[in-house]
Amino acid sequence: MTLQAIKWQDNQLYVLDQLLLPLESQYINVRDVKDGWQVISKMQVRGAPAIAIVGCLSLAVELINTSFEDKDELLDTINKKLDYLVTARPTAVNLQKAAEELKAISKKLYEDNLSVEDMVKLVSSWCQKMLDDDINTNKKIGWFGAESILKSAGGRNVQLLTHCNTGSLATAGYGTALGVIRSIHEQGRLAQAYCTETRPYNQGARLTAYELVFEKMPATLICDSMAAALMNCRKIDAVLVGADRVIRNGDTANKIGTYQLAVTAKCHKVPFYVCAPTTSIDLNLGEGKDIPIEERPCEEMTDIAGIRIASPGISCWNPAFDVTPAELITGGIVTELGVFKPSELHTILQAQ
Ligand code: MRU
Question: pTM of this prediction?
């Protein structure tokens, strides 16, 4: 059994409340798009692929439980609800891409003269299929990433460093960067996984550490400020991170702190990998500075579990993500299609 962040059962959607982990495992029943927006915005579910899946499934639940006058009303509702959902968190592109695809599919069904009932059925099955598709994609990412890292290790077992949470909790299951670590572990080749605490919101300490312990992988937690010392003192074979948005030139937005890890990795000649499904790739943007970076409430930085730890009165800057320039992604970008240099992405994706 693995951890399951998202459950779809009898046309009902349940989301594991990640703000309560690791101390409590409690599922929230997401009954409509408003609930979906809330759980995403409050980060009760988080991670780019999971955000997209929960957003779309919250629409599916709402459509299944609503009566529509006619298909005009249905199409209008689908478009409006999707426009609302994508405002929940702006940096991860997966939900935005899924919303565009779902709008195009709904328009096609409308034009093909399907009944309201059939449109609802097909739209909601498309959303449900995202769960299986994501797991299959992640397993391929795991396999390609493991192959690339183990090839350079020449028979040695490897020590890896990862940031934030990119595992079962951030996806439908298996994970992206953590999926690669999982795959290496399954092949008996993981000597040690190091995970950062991931300040300010501690997804590493709360969630990745929990997943690594749950899966019985050899693992060690470090504070974010220990990464350079770790690379200096212990052999690290690769740094692996996920992505919220990879753009045309390979520049990558991911959890705040990713950029400094990439700079540090370059300095220590440690290969730096971004592991992400092609649903995280946004070919419309050409430069990292164009990626919208979400800023989160200061309390996520100044308080821990509701207890103030920062001096009262201090002002704060809390960007949730940073952008790693493509030239620092030295290991490659691991996708379900293979491992590519950032400069190759554009051509590979356009050939699909
Ligand atoms: O703010 P979060 O927790 O949603 O940020 C998550 C990350 O930055 C992940 O690395 C990214 O979404 C990829 S998850 C497979």
Answer: 0.97
